[in-house]
Design brief:
The structure is a single chain. The chain is of the alpha/beta class. It contains 15 helices and 21 strands. The strands form 5 sheets. Strands 15-16-17-14-13-18-19 form a 7-stranded mixed beta sheet, sandwiched between helices. Strand 13, helix 9 and strand 14 form a beta-alpha-beta unit. Helix 2 packs across helix 6 and helix 3 packs across helix 4. The protein is globular, with a radius of gyration of 23 Å. It starts with 5 loop residues before the first strand and ends in a 6-residue tail after the last strand.
Amino acid sequence: MASPRGIVDDSLWLDNARGVPSGTSYASVDNSATGEEIARVRSATPADVDRAFDSAARAQKQWAATSPADRVAVVEKTADILDGMADDLAATMQAEVGTVVSQVHATQVALGLVAIRHTAASALDAVTERKTIGNSDVVREPAGVVGAITPWNYPLMQAALKVAPAIATGCSIVIKPPSAAPLTTFLVAEAFAEAGLPAGVLNVVCGSGGSVGSAIAGHARADFVSFTGSIEAGRQVAVSAARQGTRTSLELGGKSAAIILDDDKVRAAVRHTIGSCYANAGQTCAALSRLIVPRHLLEEVEDEVRKVMSQIVVGDPFDSASTVGPLANEGQRNTVVEHIRAAGETPGVRIVASKDISHLTRGWYAAPTVVVAADPSAPIVQEEVFGPVLAIQPADNEGHAIELAEGTRFGLIARVWTDDDARFERVARQLRVGGVIQSDAPTAWDAPFGGVKDSGYGRERGVYGVEEYLVAKSLQRGGTKA
């Protein structure tokens, strides 16, 4: 299987087959490194969304009646099929998103497969769990028909985090991939079909968020809607779903902070934080885009930043020397460039380091940049840039560091750099975020992921992600149980 290119008219996936949607407009998909169009994908209409939900509703009850073990086996087999397509997936996501070749297999491909495999490993116990409370047996059943809307930054992983748990739990799903990067989702649908997923369980519709996304979010046949994207779009999804009384899960991004507490953690923290902030050209909702440092260490931090920045190579994602590639599309590039320009003109903000990208005359590149922001209200501190821009904030003491970390409307993740376990937990418990990681501890990809405040609600990954697609039912018995 290979990702489609050129004019893609058969951009509707219904009943395990490609079809032509009824829309007459097309969304352009370009190569992020060159700006050249690689595909034009025909858009669906709300009528096509109706067809997709009809298909999903027809298939859902029979799929729910399939044994949990058999459903999980389909998810596992799909992961194996996609693993065998790793090169096709990597090439597609390099073109769609711009992830550099040195990272695309380890991030875009591997993390998507990890999401599917962790779902398969967690699903059986979650689905079959049964609890007794008094005279009541509590069982878990599929949520029903799911609507899903995904962003463009990690096309495989974002689809996997919604499709795999839906299918494993016995739900059917209608998914809208991002217009800027829809091609990977076709490969996912084909892999599930090859793995034996019955027709109608997984359906794909393409188009704009305003038309197709709104039709999914507010559809009368949707029992649960899962959305990942911007705050503004997420709120629109929640409102549309609320009109139908539909439950939602929203993952809306962040402005996550790394906090240095121990003086000897400067080198490790700076290198790790820049790596996190610049991975996938900064197009990561959980990117550590703020670094909060003790004020007396600020000069040392800035020196280390300049050393790290001197090693960064911005360039063609297909060049093995590149460590930072382009943004996924022109609109996002323009947004990031404007953030950088505005930061340079903001009182209380100064640029510490910025890469020269004048040699890159085509494609959607933005200069990796590090600033120091003395003013916590500066836009570069408060707004999600979604690009390779790191804001350093000096703190007077531990309490001030916590105050700065808590000083935005976001609440996704944080890292706290200290070897003192008690200090780590004390600080971590004061941060209103969905998760906190100590120093350079590896990310646990089966731990729950999601936010609070304007970062949204609901959880993905592992057993907690599976549970979002289940509903509890109480079976209250009369008489005495044997």
